[in-house]
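Internal ticket - ligand job 328, zinc ion:
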Amino acid sequence: MSTAVLETPPADPTGPVSKPLTTGRQPAGILIALWLFVTIPFAAMIAAVPAMWGWGLNWVDVVLFVIFYSIGGFGIGVGFHRYLTHGSFKAKRWLRVALAVAGSVAIEGSPTQWVADHRRHHQFSDMEGDPHSPWRYGETLWGLTKGLWYSHMGWLFYREMSNQERFAPDLVADKDISRVDKLFPWLVVTSVALPAVIGGLATWSWQGALSALFWASLVRIALLHHTTWSINSVCHVYGERPFDSRDKATNFWPLAILSFGENWHNLHHADPTCARHGVLRGQIDMNARLIWIFEKFGWVSNVRWPKLDRLQGKMVEPERTTLGNATR
Ligand SMILES: [Zn+2]
Ligand SMILES: [Zn+2]
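stdout (structure tokens):
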């Protein structure tokens, strides 16, 4: 595996140099769990189409799918990403815990590990040290094909664990978040089993439990996984780059609804702490809307809403780009 095509990052001005980037290879248990969670939901998704005509899909499944997809999706986008990783706002303690739990429901890793990986991604984005750059094998067609696979999900299988002590010391020291980290395996079990239990009780049938397990657990987990992973792969290759970021991050509009606004990834890399990623006209950003609602209820404060002059300074062609939602 060659990483020579990636640039060597500049000396890290913030991180304590004495601490290594990674803390060794991931344990075998995690690797096995990873294979199970990647292959089983994906196989389920492929089987979904004929299954739909076979023994159907009911409204309970649809409602459970939307609820659990939303909990995980907002938990990742608002909780793990904009709040815990980038500190785009301050939250009341109960909401901080709730967001960490909600993000765990997506089954993308415990809060602290997710944050450590993602902060490392920002610090070294598209350079050597980035845990998942699609450009690591070069810019040829074959190199990019391999790179897209690697950044989408391959990196999860070959990864070295990002060092939590180096990249997320704030969360390591946080008792509430550490508790959620420890509870993570139980949250995984709950995330898989709860839709089936509710589906079974709501329809009072085993078949109801099974179809809820299928749609609201397996298919839901697979879809959210691939949406998140597409931000790491597709959104560093294809799409627009209206803002100046030092990496290859893009805005890729087709993922706006499924990713709740995480797809406006070019702006995000240009201005990582900004609470809103979709700042241009027409860019739907449901994560930003939820933060806005939390702010109205007084549950969050110090929200880093976009600032017009700051954004204009980062635009590649300010005269040709229209800012839409830039005040909140
Ligand atoms: Zn990125
Ligand atoms: Zn980020």
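Auto-summary: Residues 121, 125, 236, 249, 265, 269 surround zinc ion (ligand 1) (CB under 6 Å). Residues 57-320 form one domain.
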